[in-house]
Design goal:
- The protein has one domain: Alpha-Beta Barrel (TIM Barrel), CATH 3.20.20.100.
- Helix content is about 40%, strand content about 15%.
- The strands form 2 sheets. Strands 3-4-5-6-7-8-9 form a 7-stranded parallel β-sheet, covered by helices on one side. Strands 1-2 form a two-stranded antiparallel ribbon.
- The chain is α/β, with parallel strands linked by helices and about 220 residues long.
């Protein structure tokens, strides 16, 4: 499978990223493992999930997709063959601090994701959505600390408007923090304008890796 560098990093990821949205929801453990095995056998190495997958499903509380991935990684003993991307920000409980991009929620979130994934590091840790109520400096410093601690290798963003991504890049540069190396925008044949008009020029200029999702 074709490999590409993720943004300005030296990390080489497969051009086709496997989304884990359905794992633990419409796809059970056995079916998910069949899909994951076939993906690796085809040369893929880049798997994306999120802590909130699939909290919306009846009977689920969030983290189901990460649990499926963790069991698969442990059973196959192939942690280094797979680059795991997951996300934080969405609501994971009823508490006031169970959502957002505050330092508290990020620190709690990464520990919970590591536990579910049965691993001691995350390859790409992403802000799932923007959080206008938390200062970018607080968010980025928390991510920077996780990279320094070895719990996270790279950080990225998802669902950010171009001006907010620009501001985040500026904050990282000004303060010497690690920066967002990737962005996950909604991009398909019908939803093209926002990415092509604003995000694409920014990503090209700043060397940001793009991991589009379609729906």
């Amino acid at each position: 499978m074709l490999m590409r560098k993720l943004g300005r990093t030296g990390l080489r990821v497969s051009a086709l990223c496997l989304g884990g949205n359905t794992f633990g929801w419409t796809t059970d453990q056995k079916a998910s493992e069949t899909i994951l095995d076939a993906y690796l056998e085809a040369g893929g190495n880049f798997i994306d999930t999120a802590d909130v997958y699939s909290r919306w499903a009846p009977g689920n509380s969030g983290g189901e997709s990460e649990i499926v991935l963790g069991k698969w990684l442990a059973a196959r003993k192939n942690r280094h063959a797979a680059l795991i991307a997951t996300k934080v920000m969405g609501p994971m409980g009823p508490g006031a601090n169970d959502t957002g991009l505050s330092r508290q929620h990020i620190v709690d979130g990464v520990e919970d994701s590591l536990r579910r994934l049965l691993t001691d590091y995350i390859d790409l840790y992403q802000a799932h959505w923007d959080d206008r109520e938390t200062p970018l400096e607080e968010t980025l410093r928390a991510f920077d600390d996780l990279v320094s601690q070895g719990k996270v290798r790279y950080i990225g963003a998802s669902n950010y408007h171009a001006w907010r991504l620009t501001r985040a890049l500026w904050e990282s540069d000004k303060r010497g923090y690690v920066r967002y190396e990737s962005i996950q925008p909604k991009y398909n044949l019908l939803a093209r304008d926002e990415y092509e008009r604003e995000l694409e020029p920014l990503c090209v200029e700043q060397g940001i890796g793009v991991i589009p999702y379609s729906s």
